[in-house]
Amino acid sequence: MTGQAMNGEAAIEILSPGPLASVQDLGRHGCLALGVGRSGAMDPLALTLANRLVGNEAGIAGIEFTLGAFALRFHADAVFALTGADCRATLDGLALPPLWCMTARAGQVLKGGAARGGMRSYLAVAGGFRVAPVLGSASTDLKGGFGGWEGRALRPGDRLPLRAAGRAVPHCDWGLAPESLAALCGPADAPIRVVAAAEYGLFDAAARRDLVEAEWTIQPDSNRVGYRLAGPALALTRRVELLSHGILPGTIQVPPSGQPVIQLSDANTCGGYPKIGAVIGADLWRLGQARLGSRLRFALVERAAAVAALRRQALAAEALFARLDRARRAVA
Q1: Which residue pairs from 88-96 have beta carbons closer than 8 angstroms and sit at least 24 positions apart in sequence?
Q2: In which region does residue 99 sit, left (phi positive, over 0), alpha (psi from -120 to 50) or beta (all else)?
């Protein structure tokens, strides 16, 4: 959908979006051959959790806030949930716990303070926002300028219409204890797991060792396209010239500087730099919550371990969402 919601229409109004806020779902799949990237939430687990808290399907679009510091007004009653980085949210000044599902009444203001313990927070509303999909997804492609809300980051004064307008809105005031996510997310301080990529064997022994033994700092010029890392220079055994080829979120490329770049949600669809590794699917959400200036460590795993980790995560999510559904029915 383009344009603004009409005054009086059931919507939320962005009073302040914070450093960067955009409409995102779980991404635009099947379009890489067209040169269109995935986009989507940087922390898909957090967006999925927000949706399931309010009773939505996992892939419904929500709002991704970066580093908190946002404010919005509800122009209609709505059930909402906030997940991801704890931004010490308040509703008309009332402090809300993290991972909480709440009913907002028309006129109430939701504010998020500076995020702590993460990078991105996610807002879902029951029924979702009335945003038209583009190429099968409502995610904002910030590079291409399409999808989401007018193909751009949100601005003060934007009014996003609600799909559930006119429906009865139940009273909700419940949520999850943070420790309930332990089985889903794993230890917060664990290394990020990677598998060897196609050109892994072309890097010298020191580079392969440094990949997993060094500490890497996320550079301040990083963004949703990719995280630039600072650490030991990773050297090849010989110079190679590669044709541009397909790449995906999680791909770790090494440009001539030797400083790796991890492709993320707004990743390019192709590139020619040699690839030393790829972050496994089960750990991609951790990159979405890694703050600029923070440090990362990597651990090399085999493909079988990567597949097993994704399966364990899916099973843990299924068990958690089943508990959520039972809890929602109990308080309905």
Answers
A1: 88/112, 88/113, 88/114, 88/116, 89/113, 89/121
A2: left
Burial class of residue 205, CB neighbours in 10 A (0-12, 13-18, 19+):
exposed
Mean pLDDT, residues 26-47 taken together? 94
Do the Cβ atoms of 111 and 133 come closer than 8 Å?
no
Tokens 């703050």 locate to 291
What string of H, E and C letters represents the secondary structure of 127-187?
A: CCECCCCECCECCCECCCCECCECCECCCCCCEEEECCCCCCCCCCEEECCHHHHHHHHCC
pLDDT of residue 1: 45
Mean pLDDT, range 126-132, rounded to an integer: 96
Indicate whether 125 and 226 sit together in one domain. no
Domain total in the chain: 2
Q: Do the Cβ atoms of 111 and 2 come closer than 8 Å?
A: no
Q: Does 206 lie in the same domain as 286?
A: yes
Question: Cα(181)–Cα(126) distance, rounded to whole angstroms?
Answer: 22
- Amino acid 4: pLDDT: 54
Pair (43, 19) in one structural domain: yes
Structure tokens at 273: 């730099």
Whether 201 and 164 share a structural domain: no
Closest CA to 178 of 99, 68, 114: 99
Q: Same structural domain for residues 151 and 202?
A: no
Q: Which residue has the tokens 């440090």?
A: 295
Task: Identify the helix (H) or strand (E) that includes residue 321.
Answer: helix 303-331
| Residue 320 located in a structural domain | no
| Together in a domain, 171 and 30 | yes
Mean pLDDT value across the chain: 93
Three-class SS state of 113: strand
Alpha-carbon distance of 247 to 250, in angstroms, equals 9
Q: Residue 118: is its pLDDT beyond 80? A: yes
Whether the pLDDT of residue 114 is over 60: the answer is yes
CATH of residue 220's domain is 2.40.100.10
Give the domain extent around 255: 192-301
